[in-house]
Amino acid sequence: MTEKQNPTELTGTVNAISEAVVINLYAAADKIYPRSTFGFFTKWRWVTIWLTQLFFYGIPWIEWGSRQALLFDLEARRFYIFNLVLYPQDLIYLTAILIISALSLFLFTAIAGRLWCGYACPQTVYTEIFLWIEAKIEGDRAARMKLDDAPMSSKKLLKKGSKHAAWIVFALWTGFTFVGYFSPIRELGASVIGNSLGPWETFWIGFYGFATYGNAGFMREQVCKYMCPYARFQSAMFDDDTLIVTYDEARGEPRGNRSRKADISNQNLGACIDCSMCVQVCPTGIDIRKGLQYECIGCGACADVCDTVMDKMGYERGLVKYSTQNAVNKGWSQKQVLRHIMRPRVIIYAGILIFLVAGLLTSLWLRSSFRVDVVRDRGVMARLATGGMLENVYRLQIMNATETTQHYQLSATGINNLVIESDVATKDKTVTVNPADSRWIPVRLQIPDGSMASGSHKVQFEVKSMDSKESVIEKSVFLVPR
Amino acid sequence: MSDFTSSFWPIFITVISLAGVLGCALLLWVTSKIKASSPSGDNTNGHVWDETLREMNNPLPRWWVWMFIITIVFSLFYFAAYPSLATYEGKLGWSQVGQYEQEMATANKTIAPLYAKFTAMPVEELANNAEAHAIGERLFMNNCAQCHGSDAHGSKGFPNLTDHDWIYGGSPETIQETITNGRIGMMPPMASAVGSDDDVKNVSNYVLSLSGSNHDAARAVLGKEKFASCAACHGADGKGNQAIGALNLTDDIWLHGAGEAAIIKRINEGKTNQMPAQNAKFSPEQIHVLAAYVWGLSNNAATSNVAQETAQ
């Protein structure tokens, strides 16, 4: 990789080590022991962790009528979202949600850096939860490092064992919840208790549980650094007005330790006491004082811990802070920073986003409670029926997207004297479709033979719900042979 | 067994697969030996662009190397276990066909109890069973509707299954037999037996008169005598013979087209019409359900809606 080096820092290091050093192409990943933090950003981080996890673990347990409120029934190919019943044909909504998610990521990143990474991404959220469990059992950073260095003992075994046990229980619960989105979670719970899980359910609970355990327990920042594509391309959305975790270099340098009582005004020292706390708390193990780096997930732990140190030293807070490059360089006030949020890229992202969200909501609002597909019989072009009628055969697929039995009336227009017939419909051309079911209805369209020129004529089928009074019109053609 | 006709492709696949795996291993080994140097000693490799832009060493984490090694080991086991290299069949004896047959066997086992219940029921009863009706409808839509039409009303050359005009008989057993073994209906060209073109025309008008269709009465009278050669199959009264699939000529249903011209054409040219046997496609249990559905088409007019209502 390439990195813009600070010229002053560069000369410093070059002077310090001047002889050539051999470097390896592979390196063992150093284990990171992030120290626990307290403060503004940590608090907000936990707020978002609670919100996202309450949502994830809670939603499958909510009932809606006689079924689960959110259920993706892959086997029946029905997707229940509260009172919505979606068919695979509604895939466009998923596309819209994905596009909206991507644009939201662009927007939030342009305004405030990697908010997603620090506060909402499952990878960092679960890492934080696993770290919390780890700290509860093994202790904070120093205690964990000591424990890892210590030779194996019954005490170490107990601590490590209970940590992994807690992780595994949590991971399996996560896997169970995940599968609960696809298989009714209450029945799934009963199957777990009754030891009657199906092979696929067992596999996916195990797989998702293993992924949680492995990613949050072991891989952690390695996923962000080496596997995540978002982490790499988000930097492309930064500009000098993007809020990022920054180190106020002008104020901090030259760094150096000193006594709390020392007056630094006459010494060649900045505000940074070089305590390395910002490095110790970092979940990706970087030194924020080197400037913006791609590893930074924007969690703000370093800003929190530096504020505590500054408080202790009696210095002003904000040596490491959430600010923009321009603000730090030009010494802008908070007001000036906020004023610079409104810039063309933000306005464009926001504009497209609002447009798409409005489009999605309108489309969902106007969505009919059923869908209709028309398929013309290919085997039978046209045929003569009794009474001198010329007949075309079609199949109407009516997809009932409500959870009550619906009655639909069929009609067709487009040609004079067009008659619609169906063996499965009642006398008033009504058919019944079960709740959340789809049904193929064979229908015949008839015109008096010879009343139309040979060729293809446009016709419209109108399917009207007798219950909701909505109607859907589908186009097709009526063929008259030569 | 190789499905490729040329021996080039199995060799091509073998070479590509082995070269890929060996190449990956070789690359790992070589790069693990390479030691780059950092002239300035600060973990940059000495390359400088645009005045201050310098290339840092960013070593690959070792766990990633292990993943490569695991992949290599996995692929070697995979080569040994599955049909992968040239015509080698693999230790596990896996094949696509075997997998398909296994899955079909599993699926059949799952649905067997469902069909067993239906097999015990007579067709007349089954036709009113909502569950069986739904299955029969799906079988029909996917396998029969291509010829007989989605509404089963057929078309020219393909019989209508919803009326009471049965070529080979409409009893549940005959329907079952028709689906299982198929039918071949053959009418030989009769022009020489009937006589001149004029005689053929006369017979045609007689045939039309049998069902009361538009015809030339004078020609019909003349044609009656010549109809004797047709009566062998269609019967003296023209009502046909279900045992041999001879069509009933007295109803106003014309499988191969109505009108004088169409009938003349049939007398002159004959017709061989075939319904293919379905026993290779369906199990006898499925045919039983399908037969009930087809029987129900002409015997229970309101079946479908009744079935839908009762299914709820």
List keywords for this structure.
heterodimer; A: alpha+beta; 2 domains; five-stranded antiparallel beta sheet; 19 strands; 43% helix; disordered N terminus; B: 312 residues; Cytochrome Bc1 Complex, Chain D, domain 2; two-stranded antiparallel ribbon; 8% strand; elongated; disordered C terminus
Task: Walk me through the structure.
The complex is a heterodimer of chains A (482) and B (312). With 482 residues, chain A is of the alpha+beta class. Chain A is built from 17 helices and 19 strands. Chain A has helices spanning 7-16, 40-58, 91-112, 115-119, 122-138, 141-149, 154-179, 185-193, 199-219, 221-227, 229-233, 249-252, 277-281, 301-313, 325-330, 334-339, 344-366, and strands spanning 2-4, 21-24, 26-27, 63-64, 67-68, 70-73, 78-81, 84-86, 244-247, 320-323, 370-376, 383-385, 389-400, 406-413, 419-421, 430-433, 438-448, 455-465, 471-480. In chain A, strands 11, 12, 13, 15 and 17 form a five-stranded antiparallel β-sheet that branches. In chain A, a hairpin with a 3-residue loop joins strand 12 and strand 13 (389-400). Chain B is mainly alpha-helical. Chain B has three domains: 1-33 and 44-94, no CATH class; 105-182 and 276-311, Cytochrome Bc1 Complex, Chain D, domain 2, CATH 1.10.760; 185-275, Cytochrome Bc1 Complex, Chain D, domain 2. Chain B has helices at 8-33, 62-81, 96-119, 123-126, 130-143, 145-148, 172-181, 191-194, 197-210, 217-226, 228-234, 260-269, 284-299, 303-311; strands at residues 35-38, 44-49, 53-56, 60-61, 183-187, 271-275. Chain B has a two-stranded antiparallel ribbon with strand order 2-3. A two-stranded antiparallel ribbon of chain B has the order 5-6. The model of chain B is unreliable at 301-312 (pLDDT under 50). At the A-B interface, strand 1, helix 1, strand 2, strand 3 and strand 12 of A face strand 1, strand 2, strand 3, strand 4 and helix 2 of B. Strand 2 (21-24) of chain A pairs antiparallel with strand 1 (35-38) of chain B.
